[in-house]
Amino acid sequence: MKKRIWFNRWFRTGVNIIDKIRLFDTEKEYEIFITHHEKDREFMKRADFFSTEEYMTGEKYIEFCIDFCKRNRIDIFIPKYRLDDISRNRDRFEKIDVALMISAEKDVMELVQDKARFYEDVEGCGIVDIPEYYIVKNFEDFIDSYGCVCRKNKKACYKPCVSEGGIGFKIVCEKNELKSKSTSFISFEKACSTLKSGNELEALVLMEFLEGPEYSIDCLAYGGKLLAAVPRKKTGWTRTLENNPSLIEISRGIAERYRFSYVFNVQVIYSKNVPYLLEVNPRMSGGIDVSCMSGVNFPYLALDLLVKGTAEVPEPKFGMSFHSDPGGRKKP
């Protein structure tokens, strides 16, 4: 009997994850169920079953998910939306025989989602260096922290402690630097005006802005054991798969410390030849299809681990570069 997989409200690059599963599913073992907040044409084309979701949060959304699984006899749930809430309710899905592809236990999921708490936990453990950072809770915190960074002739950036992807990320610069800059840049004056509008802010992490090479490392693991890691070097719109032993060892240390399983992603950036941790994403990344060009089909192998507890993982092939245009198309 075919196993039914449900993807809920994935970002647009989720279509690439589904394509990778379809590519290796030569025996047609899986049926794909997709729900989304809009009638996305690309998701609809790839689904055996597609439906839209209303906006829900908290317990109401968990009840919707459990009911959806029961009504549609879902075997495997690969969540992206409300990942933390679903993680906290893992036992309720297990009671109805739904296997969740969630990469860590709920305490770890909550920890890595909060950048301030996660940095505090990683500091001093010997796995990877952390950028100079400060926790900002009000306007006065921002002024003090910004001054600390600038006094060392460094540029500052900030991001909400709890956010996803690049949401809320800003690089603080002088007004005369804003010309032809992307929306990620903000003037010091505009940042002050925005942050001063309320006494209590959503907590931010303010840190030194590092301008060296940036890497996204897609990782496959099981029970804390790293099975594969593919570092992707980001240079403009070009992505290069690089055999970087230092980054692979960092990924191994993170997998072991937090007992990750299935797929997770590590973001690092270099400064003076030293890699610094930006964040860890406890899910499949948006660019994972590029890492799959290494010969490691991360989504399908993660399914094998979830269903069978084992997977035949090939050695990654490195050295290839791919160009990704703004529309998301990958070109060698």
Question: How are the SSEs placed, and which strands pair?
Answer:
Elements: E1 3-8, H1 14-24, E2 30-36, H2 41-46, E3 49-52, H3 58-72, E4 76-79, H4 83-88, H5 90-94, E5 99-100, H6 106-113, H7 115-122, E6 133-136, H8 139-150, E7 156-160, E8 170-173, E9 185-187, H9 188-195, E10 204-208, E11 214-222, E12 225-235, E13 238-241, H10 245-258, E14 262-271, E15 274-281, H11 288-291, H12 298-308, E16 321-324, E17 330-331
Parallel strand pairs: 1-2, 1-4, 2-3, 4-5, 8-9
Antiparallel strand pairs: 6-10, 7-8, 7-10, 11-12, 11-14, 12-13, 13-16, 14-15, 16-17
Characteristic key phrases:
single chain; Dna Ligase, domain 1; 332 residues; seven-stranded antiparallel beta sheet; Rossmann fold; alpha/beta; D-amino Acid Aminotransferase, Chain A, domain 1; 3 domains; 28% strand
Question: How many structurally independent domains?
Answer: 3
Tell the overall outline. globular
Series of H and E elements? EHEHEHEHHEHHEHEEEHEEEEHEEHHEE
Rounded radius of gyration (Å) = 21 Å
Find the CATH topology of the largest domain. Answer: D-amino Acid Aminotransferase, Chain A, domain 1
What is the name of the CATH class of the largest domain?
Answer: Alpha Beta
Record field, number of beta strands: 17
Helix count, per DSSP?
Answer: 12
What does this structure look like?
- The two termini are 38 Å apart.
- This protein has helices at 14-24, 41-46, 58-72, 83-88, 90-94, 106-113, 115-122, 139-150, 188-195, 245-258, 288-291, 298-308; strands at 3-8, 30-36, 49-52, 76-79, 99-100, 133-136, 156-160, 170-173, 185-187, 204-208, 214-222, 225-235, 238-241, 262-271, 274-281, 321-324, 330-331.
- The mean pLDDT is 91.
- It folds into three domains: 3-102, Rossmann fold, CATH 3.40.50; 109-128 and 212-331, ATP-grasp fold, B domain (D-amino Acid Aminotransferase, Chain A, domain 1), CATH 3.30.470.20; 133-208, 2-Layer Sandwich (Dna Ligase, domain 1), CATH 3.30.1490.
- The protein is of the alpha/beta class and 332 residues long.
- Helix content is 33%, strand content 28%.
